[in-house]
Write a structure and sequence with these properties.
about 230 residues, alpha+beta, six-stranded antiparallel β-sheet, 3 helices, 6 strands
Length: about 230
Amino acid sequence: MTLPPPSSSAFSVLLRAPVLVLLSMLVLAGCAGSPRRVSYETEEFDSTTTHTRTYTATEAQTCEAARRALLSQGYMISAANPDLVTGRKSFQPASEVHVEVEFRVVCAREGGKAGKRSTVAFATALQDRYGIKKVNNSASVGVGAFGSLSLPFAGSDDAMVKVASETLTDELFYDRFFALLDRFLEGQGGEEPEVPSVAPEAPRPSAPPAPAAPALTFPVKPVPNPG
């Protein structure tokens, strides 16, 4: 029995199939080989106002105002130096989500105009996100010479695991902090307090000299002149 010759349409489909498979493989290879974009590739280093503010005050005064600003918002202060303040605060946005924000303020001296001292405050907030992870624990029982025997039932424990870490870049977030810092800085007077000058003590007048004691005289007996 002779088979009928394949039609032209069927023959063209047979020729196209390997070509389509080859093109698909090339596309998949290109997608797998292309590098993934990472978040820091969008960093342009063009803005200097999100994390910084300048104050007409000393480093110690600026960092002290930052410490009080963080304390007023419930942050636990972990470091408080004349040029560095760090604080941490916990949040619970959901029942199984825990968030911690670590706030860091660095105070650096900067030359001001007309001899006035100024300080640049650099603020950075790091947000760590934690999630609950189930950890299965299998039970085992000692059975004499056979050692330990694992039982079919198991228990589970909940553990908090860090799932994300990100530096906050919201401008409004830092604007509110710097505005609060400015309020506490105004309460300190802003400028470094001047030390009142003490006039040198005038010399005390010396006491007048004591009058000399009168000389003591003794009577002298006359001596007879021999004649």
